[in-house]
Specification:
The protein is an alpha+beta fold. It has a single domain, classed as 3-Layer(aba) Sandwich (Aminopeptidase), CATH 3.40.630.30. Helix content is 39%, strand content 25%.
Length: 117
């Protein structure tokens, strides 16, 4: 059996470093914020989760993340989930306010995408 190694480009490695540094700066401002973000490509990140137990912090952090991504011309995707008790329709409306649009694909029928502005 052959195993193919996947190598990250230098651009992806650099983006991961920048994103990690940026997230640390957000966490220093919002102590209870938690992120799960994957770099999928040099111009694409996917939010697995973003949350806080302090009202409004996740919204503020998402807004900062979007500004950062826009500045770097990076597309953001996420999958809307009501697993944590949130209302699915309210989540759709909330993410839509940030410019996300529903973009179902073969992996998820609840995928949303936001192109940089």
């Amino acid at each position: 059996m052959k195993v193919r190694k996947l190598f990250e480009s230098d651009e992806v490695k650099e983006l991961k470093k920048e994103l990690l540094y940026f997230i640390k700066s957000i966490k220093s401002d919002y102590k209870n914020i938690d992120f799960g973000i994957m770099v999928e490509d040099k111009k694409l990140i996917h939010i697995n989760f973003i949350g806080s137990n302090t009202f409004g912090d996740a919204t503020k952090a998402l807004s900062r993340l979007i500004d950062w991504a826009d500045n770097k011309k990076i597309t953001i995707t996420l999958d809307v989930s009501d697993n944590c008790g949130s209302n699915y329709d309210n989540l759709l409306k909330g993410y839509s306010r940030f410019g996300f649009v529903l973009n179902p694909n073969k992996y998820s029928d609840k995928r949303m995408i936001r192109e940089p502005r």
